[in-house]
Input
Amino acid sequence: MQPFDYIRPSSIEDAVREKARNPAAQFLGGGTNLVDLMKYDVARPAALIDVTHLPMDRIEVNPDGGLRIGALVRNSDLAEYPRVVRDYPVLSQALLAGASPQLRNMATSGGNLLQRTRCYYFYDVAFACNKREPGSGCSALAGQNRIHAILGQSPACIATHPSDMAVALAALDAVVQVVGPQGKRAIPILELHRLPGDTPQTDTTLRNDELITAIDLPALPMAAKSHYLKVRDRASYAFALVSVAVALDAQGGTVREARIALGGVAHKPWRALEAERTLVGQGASETSFRAAAETALRDAKGYEHNTFKIELAKRTIVRALTTMA
Amino acid sequence: MQFDTEGADFENATRADDGSWQLGESLASPNSNLSHGSQPEPIGVGTAAPDFAFAAADGRRLRLHDFRGQPVLLAFFPPDWDPARAHQLSLYNQILQRVPGGQVLGIAQDEFWCEISVEDEDDALHYPLLQGLSSNDEAAQRFGIEGVQAVFLIDGEGIVRWRHVGDASVRPVVDQLWATISASGGTAPRISRRNFLVASLAVCVAFALHPRVSRAAGDPSTSGAANAVSPESRSVVLNINGTDYPTLIEPRVTLLDALRERIGLIGTKKGCDHGQCGACTVHVDGRRVNACLTLAMQVEGAKIVTIEGLVNGRQLHPVQAAFIKHDGFQCGYCTPGQIMSAVSCIAEGHAGSDSEVREWMSGNLCRCGAYNGIVESVRDAKALMAGAHAAEQTAIDAPQSAVVRTA
Output
């Protein structure tokens, strides 16, 4: 690990000031991803601004009845928070499907959103990787690409976003609260992460000097009937090959509203908006779920080792929706 | 020569044609990390061992030269060399048996090293322990081995006859010795099976380092970060098992490395060092975490509990006892992490069924595959602890009801 400076700011404002002063610094949350990347020499921050002692560790009720989740709320606490379990089960299930109990005790909700890809070539500095070293090429295109993207990828990068939590948040239309030197702003979750295009080195629309302070969950009654289904190589403690977050509002066998988000398939949590629309007014049946899944994966493109994911994603959507119907 | 009686084989085994004891040296050199420019050269084979003063375990003030007339094996001990392990102690015994009248001088700071002076097999050997020397680096300086592991065999005339010196990360093992000898086509001169055995033991003994006498790493990009003291090092107090440990560390030192390499609490294991195996699991403010991905500076002010903190006096924690009873391990390397994780798993209320235990223990991998025993251990410990809790409640309730009656 390269040497770095360690800074423990006394307030959120102080943290933002430190970051503005030192653009090569990074905020440190639970460290479960960043410290690991530093050990692999992938991340080389000049300084770590440890924000874990700042007052962003609460869950509060918003005026609309939704929840404001502090950026430092640990994944383990969020997963078992009674109102999350009751009103947003998809989020609880997604969190518990991720990592291990130890890592969930460390990982923060803000940090979870900013995880970097688990693409092997990104992690191994011996390989070309446009995300790590812009312009160096993509080793995954013609390499081992079993875990890689099938939607929204570019010739520059076929990496996927590894978060489970973010997939649930995408289905819930969460809003990310950030603060920077210019003040606060709110970023809808679907606009936080970006597709790789020809600048895969940039994962999100967050500015370099901005700090995530909270995540807002809107009041969403239909979310009480929601579900996260994760398909992976092991029964536990593995990243998703494909995951699906769904919420379903069906009355008398007819779909009134559906939410479908996919994980493990794209550079960002992938919301299947068109597929959701096709379900409205349809019967809550396997036939219509399958049709929606076909729509969701219509533009999917596989590579040498990951083409199986296209059919896997469709079946996972059908299974998740069927569970809720 | 002091080695010429029964010790002749040992001498031949490690002595090259030019008369110096090159075998041990040449075996060590591929692994040793002595090329950093400004580092002083370790005292070489064939040269006189420098003198230094120390206090023996019994409080006597001695000097190294007081041992003239008998061979001395001078070892700078690592914290993870455990004299309670019979096989490690027996290495010393066997070597010393080849060196009649020999002494082991071990340099260490921790009090538990005293055990080495009482654990011997035939009463013929004793091992003065030089305590407290590690914070006084005079000896290490004079031998030119600050911050590296080192073992010197010094003959009765005070001449260094064999040495193993290497970077702190070097862990010479018998396998390496085998490989080196095999690679030489078996043509190494005068190595009989018995000689080889002795030579192997000698190299094994070189499980030695002196972490507290550390210096700035020559190259910060090497793995020496755990021991490096750079100008950016800061004073941090870590509260571990109820005790405050002041320690001087760089920001990049993880809690795991601080525990093992700085503070000498080696019960916590380094497995993958990347948060994937759980061998490093400790409790921070009552929650299980991976110490390998936790920066030590982040947990200043927190209450840290390691496997060493579970035992109550001489009473094992119920989870520890259950792991023994149910064979919850084979090689034992993952066990401290498994146990720390299991204690949390039960406390969190995630041990309700075998499948729940498997899911909530999934962050702890066991290459031996002792999973069935681990699940049984957790299940049994949970029942034991629930029973103990019930008994405790009864004990608390009883006097209260007595009070109610008399009132």
